[in-house]
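SEVERITY: medium
COMPONENT: batch folding queue
REPORTER: lab tech (J.R.)

DESCRIPTION
The queue accepted two submissions in a row. Attaching both inputs and their returned structure tokens so the on-call engineer can compare them side by side.

ATTACHMENT 1
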Amino acid sequence: MKISNFNIIKNYEDKVLIYNSYSKASIFLEVGSDVSMFENIDSFNALDEDDKQILIENGFVVNDDRDEISEIKYIFEQKYFATDILNIVLVPSLLCNFKCPYCCEKDFQCGKEDVKKYFKTLKEYAKKHFHLHPRVHISLFGGEPLIYAKECLDFLDWVKKDAKKNNYDYVTSVVTNGSLLDLDMFLKIKSHNLLSLQITIDSDKKNHDTLRIFKSGKPSFDLLMEKIDMVASNITDEDTGKFVVRINLNNTSVERVKEALENIDPAKRNKIYLLIRAIYNTHAYNENNCNSVSALQEYFDMGTELGFNIMRDRYSYQTCEACADRKFFYLMPDLTIWKCINDIGFKDSKIGKISENGIIETDPKNVVDWYKNCMSAFSDSDCLKCKMLPDCLGGCPLNKAKNGKKACRPFDMICLPYIY
């Protein structure tokens, strides 16, 4: 037997955490506990058989012939090239009724948007491709996708019929600012096998009403709290989808975010998953932020104590929680297809276009280059030695494509949520 390459030991004031990023197993020990059995095979061999078995079953100790790196690479490539799920993000428009200053899309337009043509062409593509996959994952994104809620729902109604006719499953996800969502709309979306619905709150009420505002300048915090309550009130025990409230941290504190979250009815908090991230700089927004994704534990603990769930990465063994597999793309308003739209000015993320007859015209170079950027961790000596490799896998492919270097993701962002 040998010690796994991916045992991580984190010392906190009141406990010691042992986490294996490959198996996702975790153990909490008292401060001052002997942790040598997670680092040294001789210390492991000195344990009794029951303790040995616990460490082996949880992946902290593995057989001598295990090549964990090759296994992780295999899992990654298997997921990257899997064809069982087609994951398409619909961006029918970049229009939004908010004017958040950090928005990565605010300086870009795709030309005159023709939503009618968009969905007509999308339907032609769907006729040719959706039935080739056991499952199709359709996400609504923007801009604010619910500006065109009727068109989106009409398309989903068509997909429901087509899925039944051609024997494939489909699920939906929605990322919305929440302002246009009403009960009727939510129930219609939920009827389309809702996998997740996300609404964002910016830190605390004061921060939120400064940053996440309508184009008229009107604040939105109180309105969104009403929307969150409405959604949580209409989630049943039979629903399998997740309701995600994303918390964008911006020069705030745990106490201030807690005060904001306490506006949510305690009886409904167990129906909500918190996705907590620090606001980051974009091409159009460069401001100092005392919050970072390297210091999230206090926020996770606070959310858990209030009765919320903590959102784990739904896309394990990928370089990115969104764009890091072959069958994933954004369909933009001009019918171009992109791997990532966090910087629409970076054209190397564009991998093709859908013609009016529903045929994809690809850019082979950009397709292959994106794959190489996703695979870069397996040729990077630092990544191969990193204990967080299975959770990070070299980080953001867009950063690698733009800057030629990896963007390491911190423990609190990618590993810590698995503990909760």
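ATTACHMENT 2
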Amino acid sequence: MSGVFLVKGKTALKGEVQISGAKNAALPIMAASILCDEEVVIENVPKLLDIIVMKDILVSIGFEVSFEDNRVRVKHTSSKLNTEVPYELVRKMRASFNVLGPLAVRMGQAKVALPGGCSIGVRPVDFHIEGLRKLGFEIEVEHGFVKATRVGRVDSVKIVLPFPSVGATEHLMTTAVLMEGTFTVIENAAMEPEIEDLQNFLNAMGGKVRGAGTSRIEIEGVKRLSGGSHKIIPDRIEAGTYLIAIAATCGRGTVRGVKPDHLTALLETMRRTGATLGVGEDFVEVSMDDRPSPVDVVVNPYPGFPTDLQPQMMAYLCVGKGVSTIIENVFKTRFLHVGELRRMGANIEVSGNTAIVKGVEKLSGAPVLGTDLRATAALVIAGLMAEGQTEIHEAHHIFRGYENVLEKFAKLGANIEYVPTSEEVESDP
């Protein structure tokens, strides 16, 4: 799908929205299911394009995978798995690269194409590759593929990540867990809740992992992982997007089915803008009656302000009552949405990894281009705030990360129409 969103502006969102399972937790857990020699059942999995791609990757490897009612079942159909994952699947999604280590540790070797995904700046896999080498794998990179071959056993490994990369932390955790006799320590590990969810999954299947959620993770390799079931945590980024959208439109609403302690940095920032918040055990209420007060936002790895909410927060601050500063320390070139927000009347200057957002009284609807998943979500928020109608082209990016996004926004009172391309219309039976 690559159609257009038509967003009617000046709409105050009101009501309740139920948050789905976290895509960024489900994907690495699905990749880790490669390690298990019995059926794995994963609950609360959002129906998203990225999840379908990972399902197709597991099928291409040789698993039987079903996906119904937000439940993924992964079954082994043969002891012999395909050890090469084709480019046409991996190019669609960056998280697909994380099948390399699990497949290589299980089968002795694996070959996976270098990944694709959102164009939000360079995101190299160097940390993954160097970590796999330390774990005892021989790595060859040629013709756009990475081949990993297990060449020996090591008693102990210490991996110090140069940056707390989420993908590398998950990849190396998942690989090391099935290396019997090897004790692995990952220092400067990413601390996101999704990594803790992966640890809980691995341990439920028979792994020995501790420390997830801190900067030091320890893994005692085991001989096998069995099967079992696991429920994915709520999507904190989806929750944050709807909270920002409600506040940005001077609305009043509730997001349910969340873990508020996963949203601490966002909630603190929103309070500083003047939003009123009510926090319960599994919900957050938000209301806003005026343009936001200016704030300084510093984007950092968890528990800092999340990079995946930076574009949405920027859209909100575009109509602030002063000058806000956003410093992006994770993906330092993640400002593709700035030019599109300017088309709507925003006053934003970018210097290096810093954006200066000078609040204006209003935005105006305009034709804009969705460049990646979170940028497209930001443009939806901007369109709901703006006067008139906003046309968001290449809107398909948003379907990679937001389950039932049109239905959920509609439930809050938003007026968003999806206009498919002529190719989509012609292919629809």
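NOTES FROM REPORTER
The radius of gyration is 22 Å.
No errors were logged for either attachment.
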